[in-house]
């Protein structure tokens, strides 16, 4: 076995980006195993996409059954899994979103399609996006992304018409305000950005309801109601990028349900594939759907096999009991971390909804402590916890977003390994 490991790792020299020095061989639920049989709890659920964890048996069964009949057919034809998935998505997304576009190949192309749909509908060109948002990695979505390091190496590919605005990051407010008294300036001041910094011709604003890569920022409850009002007043489309927050991650099918706000367009990907099948969708109000499909259509969009997986995923997640468990396990982890704050002052803000959780690591002055964050991440690995941080903010936020199948016992296990990690880090 060790030889296989060495042999595989030698191949790293051919990889565009060399991988970590560990060979993973199988996974089950929240657990991942390397070739030495070491067990890890994956607190990032793959790339935040394994809503049902590794190799969920019902997903495997649904896919196996579908594969015997049809794996792929051009999306010009009707198939049962795709048609049923469209029907299901209309049922579970906010009421006014009755049109589904499935011919996209992932989150970036879904977001790019949503922006095209808005521009096709209202004929305007400007787009507003949040600081710290990911949006995607196609040329346009990279430009819409809320961090300049994404664009730095690609100066020849810069797009115009995108205006970035600060998010509702109350812990470190851009406007130095307090949420109890600010009157939500972060929404009001968007008017200034539109009037003074944009094309003046805003087609859409794209927002992640909870910034995923950008440090798990959870806006106050009324933020999106106010943003909805602004979009209506200034006559632009409100696009919710629910690529991380959708399909149960918050304990609601969509963060739009948690915030009780209907966007004009919503994008869905990641968790929709259950155990890692590649599928994404755009849900839109009917007026946005008059763009010819061929303007945004990808070979692996409307994938029949992935649609079978997605249907089964929704069937499993969209039950009151399953969603209640997400809230319960999420609350357990957040409360545990808040208790640990007393013992470990380097734990700064702890924030989350459902199983979309993040916590800041800070120094004695309350400033972001990236060095300590990376140490904790490293020690967590040795304690059998796979944790993610990101460069979208200060790099000091550790995320806990395991598979949504998480049991209370598994949540306890995550917390106990985390506590052990904090102890070893402080030694
Ligand atoms: C919120 C959000 N939007 C869009 C994307 C892009 O999705 P994809 O990587 O499938 O293109 C991601 C990916 O991490 C994401 O987290």
Describe the structure.
With 427 residues, the protein is of the alpha/beta class. 37% of the residues lie in helices and 15% in strands. The chain is built from 14 helices and 14 strands. The strands form three sheets. Strands 4-10-9-8-7-5-6 form a seven-stranded mixed β-sheet, sandwiched between helices. Helix 9 links the parallel strand 7 and strand 8. Helix 4 packs parallel to helix 11. The two termini are 34 Å apart. The mean pLDDT is 96. It binds pyridoxal-5'-phosphate. Pyridoxal-5'-phosphate binds next to helix 5.
Topology as a string of helices (H) and strands (E): HEEEHHHEHEHEHHEHEHEEHHEEHEEH
**Whole-Å distance between the termini?**
34 Å
Strand content: 5-15%
Radius of gyration, whole Å:
21 Å
Could you say which structural class the secondary elements and strand pairing correspond to?
A: alpha/beta
Write the layout of secondary structure elements.
Elements: H1 2-10, E1 24-28, E2 31-34, E3 39-42, H2 45-48, H3 57-69, H4 80-92, E4 99-101, H5 107-122, E5 126-130, H6 139-144, E6 162-165, H7 185-188, H8 190-197, E7 202-207, H9 223-234, E8 237-241, H10 255-259, E9 265-268, E10 281-284, H11 304-317, H12 320-343, E11 347-353, E12 356-361, H13 370-382, E13 385-386, E14 397-400, H14 408-426
Parallel strand pairs: 3-13, 5-6, 5-7, 7-8, 8-9
Antiparallel strand pairs: 1-2, 2-3, 4-10, 9-10, 11-12, 12-14
Bound molecules: pyridoxal-5'-phosphate.
């Amino acid at each position: 076995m060790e030889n296989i490991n060495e042999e595989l790792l030698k191949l790293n020299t051919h990889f565009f980006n060399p991988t970590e020095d560990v060979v993973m061989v199988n996974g089950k639920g929240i657990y991942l195993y390397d070739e030495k049989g070491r067990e890890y709890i994956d607190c990032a659920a793959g790339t935040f996409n394994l809503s049902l964890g590794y190799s969920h048996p019902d997903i495997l069964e649904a896919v196996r059954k579908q594969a015997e009949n049809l794996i792929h057919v051009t999306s010009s034809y009707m198939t049962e899994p795709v048609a049923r998935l469209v029907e299901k998505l209309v049922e579970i997304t906010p009421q006014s979103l009755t049109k589904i576009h499935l011919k996209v190949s992932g989150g970036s192309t879904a977001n790019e399609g949503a922006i095209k749909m808005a521009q096709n509908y209202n004929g305007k060109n400007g787009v507003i996006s949040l600081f710290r948002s990911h949006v995607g990695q196609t040329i346009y979505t990279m430009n819409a992304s809320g961090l300049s390091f994404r664009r730095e190496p690609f100066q020849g590919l810069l797009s115009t018409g995108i205006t970035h605005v600060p998010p509702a990051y109350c812990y470190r407010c851009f406007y130095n305000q307090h949420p109890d008294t600010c009157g939500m300036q972060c929404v009001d001041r968007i008017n200034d950005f539109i009037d003074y910094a944009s094309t003046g011709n805003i087609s859409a604003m794209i927002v992640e309801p909870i910034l995923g890569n950008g440090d798990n920022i959870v806006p106050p409850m009324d933020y999106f109601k106010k943003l909805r009002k602004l979009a209506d007043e200034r006559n632009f489309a409100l696009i919710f990028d629910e690529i991380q927050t959708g399909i149960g991650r918050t304990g609601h099918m969509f963060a739009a349900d948690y915030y009780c706000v209907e966007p004009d367009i919503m994008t869905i990907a990641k968790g929709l594939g259950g155990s890692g099948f590649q599928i994404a969708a755009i849900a839109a109000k009917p007026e946005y759907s008059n763009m010819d499909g061929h303007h945004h259509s990808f070979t692996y969009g409307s994938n029949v096999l992935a649609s079978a997986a997605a249907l089964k995923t929704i069937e499993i997640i969209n039950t009151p009991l399953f969603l209640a468990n997400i809230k319960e396990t999420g609350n357990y982890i957040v409360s545990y971390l808040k208790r640990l704050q007393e013992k470990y002052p380097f734990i700064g803000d702890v924030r989350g909804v459902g199983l979309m959780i993040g916590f800041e690591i800070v120094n004695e002055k309350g400033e972001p402590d990236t060095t300590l964050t990376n140490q904790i991440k490293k020690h967590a690995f040795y304690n059998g916890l796979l944790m993610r941080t990101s460069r979208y903010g200060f790099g000091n936020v550790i995320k806990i977003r395991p598979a949504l199948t998480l049991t209370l016992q598994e949540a306890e296990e995550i917390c106990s390994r985390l506590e052990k990690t904090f102890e070893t880090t402080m030694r």
